[in-house]
Write a structure and sequence with these properties.
By secondary structure, the protein is mainly beta. Helices cover about 15% and strands about 35% of the residues. Strands 28, 29, 36, 37, 42, 43, 47 and 48 form an 8-stranded antiparallel β-sheet that branches. The longest helix is centred in the N-terminal third of the chain and has 29 residues. The protein is globular.
Length: about 850
Amino acid sequence: MTEVSRTASRARQVEQAFHDGVSQAALLFERADLRTDARVAGTAFATALAERCGLIGAAAEPNPRLVAQLIARLSDVITTVRPFLRWDALVEPAFVPRFAYGRESLLRLVIRTGVEQAAPGDLALTLTPPAAYAAATVAAHPELDLQWREDCQRHVASPKTSQFEAELHGAFDAAMGPGATPDSVARALATAVREDGSFLDTTIADLDNPGQRIAQPGITFHVTPTAETPEVADPDDLPDGDPLTPGQYVAHDADALALPYLPDPLAAGVSLMFPDAGAGHHLAGLFSLDGTVIAYPGDWPELAPLRLVLQSGPELGAVVSGHVLRVTLPPGEQLRMRVASSIRRDRLDLMGLWASLPAAIRDNPFLREVAADGWFWWLTPSTEVRLVHAVPRPVEVPRPTILVPFRQPGDTAVTLVGAVDLHGPSTERIDIEAEWSQWVDDVAKVGPERVTAQAVACGTSVSPDEDLVVLAGADSVVPVPGGSPLRIHAAVHQTGDTLHRTVDYRVRATTRYREYFHPQVTVTRDDLSVVGPVRTLEVPSSARPAKVTVRDVLPLFRWHEETEPHHPFGLRRTRRAGLRLYLDRPWFSTGDGELLAVLLTADGSADAVDITSQWAADPVFRQQGPAQRSALPLTDLLHFSGLDDRREPGRPVGPAVLRPLVDLKAAPQAWVLGYEPEYSVERQLWFVDVAFDPGPAFWPFVRLAVARYQPDSLPGLHLGPVTPCDYAQLAPERTATLTRPDDTHARVTVTGPVGYPRDPFVGGVPPSRDFLSHVTRSRTMRARLERFEPAVGTDLGWTTVDQWDLPILGAEGTVVSWALELPLPVTLAPRTPGSNKKWRVTLEEWERVPADFEAGGTGGWQPRIVYADHLAL
């Protein structure tokens, strides 16, 4: 071998040694999950260093000891590699108005519906839709420059980031390293230019044509009435980097807003949480929360902003179509939302605060889901947005359901006891106005004269969640077992004397949304209020009704469906209990107004209990109901108090009253609830529906005691002879809610009272002492996802796609809540459930009870279905 070849061979050996050392360093980088081009950079560095030291080259004589020292020195300068973690939160999305404000703000969207009352006391109101009302009001007041429209819109954009932050997230990797191309570098440069962009820019960088800019049409500059006097009239005149002064803002009138800056690489979409939703379900912690996630269309860096549109509708609802989220809100209602950013699920582990949590938390699929959906404030802080459908007057005329004057001896004031039916969301306060006339005999005058007086008797504020304002002598809050506390409002009319009067009272309700209307639009008090009908308060007796004959007593299901309160992406269906009584003809033995009375014991005496309504528990089940046969409590029937006299099926037409049972010697008193009979043409019989609220009782038996009842009778003649009915069993109440958390899931929740069979063994397995374990063994709540085949055309066209047994996720006493998030096999945009004709969720509750023993057999447990319902997606 020649000297030249030996020199070249040694040079290659030296070079290989350096490459081996660098490879070991690069391996450390790769294990830390850093970019692989670290190996390329390290190799180039080592080669250059070797050449500079004269260790590589055709004429160089290698020194093995020097090479070893250099490799060792190179290893010493390699620092410990740490993975990249982001420690700052992913902030909430940016909001941009589409049009100028009309007495609103950036995070408070407002539309307006006109309300007119033809005359005081008229219950019928005329509602003018937002489009017509805005046009008429703007035309009538051109001097006010009102910015009112039929809808209210905001662009919702991803939060902004810097080029450096985006590069740390790997957003510019395509323009770096050996794989970079001139086109990728040019696009990366155009992308980086957008770092300085803002919604004040009238042009933005063109990513497809570097160096060029795209015009942004529809940008307008506005100043609020309370703003400081601006130094410039247009955002183009602002020096670079100067922000707008307080009160200045820009609007972007565009159907689809182009993002002028670099979006945060971790932002996936908008997370909407509804803190007021889910009332009535016994869920705690994260299970009590509900929300919806909407993804931004497009890919980084062109994540298209969403457009939030608030518009009028008959009920609360929402639908997502493309990049547009439309929310419908009834007049006088508000919706509170917490808006945050959702995180890309594949980047969640880059968040330092999340990565620092124990693995047991990070590996929990439910917690990972809610973290990515933006529910944790420390990862994704939220901002509150309020949607308001303002009205100049309340949308419902206040109507006293009952109003009774009450006085103690010597009082110079009148306490008004009763309730007022109104629309709490649009009513801020009520004032009770009084008008009366009376004779005054002044000895200083020729004769008596009739004097008329008017006054505001009293007034009180109204909470948004009140639809029935209860009036009494003092303000107080009364706890209600198993329900929300009842707020009592003071209503005392100071008359200044002890005289008897016939007083005409009427209630005036004032709007909650006065701030959203210009004072020149709502000039007088009548422009901001509606006045209820007059209630004349007075104080004063023939034949006893005939005995009623009850033909049949049948169980009754009462179904109620509505949008889930405070959740536009939810639907609620409730099954309640009741009985239908078929009555023999004829009716009206005492004339018009004759009712069927349901009798409830008042004094608890043995004679009264036997002749009034009773109930008892089903002996098959252990449950939280009556321990033994007893008098039916007054609280088990709806509307017993008469505070709510709204005429609805199955409810009493008036308040409960005490009347004597004259058929008994002692004539004990009994509570009387009057129901108005209806006539069945098909059966040629009268019937009465009686609604029940048995609370936590499970499958109770009820025996009603009824009689004809004439309210307008003399004392002692109100009731006919008592007729005891047969026992009937009430089905347990069930409330089902279907919500849409995102476009690939549906969440179903079912709540209701439960029990379990008394036999100590269920299915041959000894149950534990835990109540819920008994319930789980004795019943199953099942959900089926079904798809409709149009070719069949009937209900037989529904086929099961998948089914799940719902777990119990919450309980309060014996009232439990089953809940589960169901995966959808197809992507369905989130919207208010109930209108999808192709997909539905069917619910079934199977109950296992002891079966009859057969001859020679051992008996067993047999399932039966006790609840079934279906909710369309």
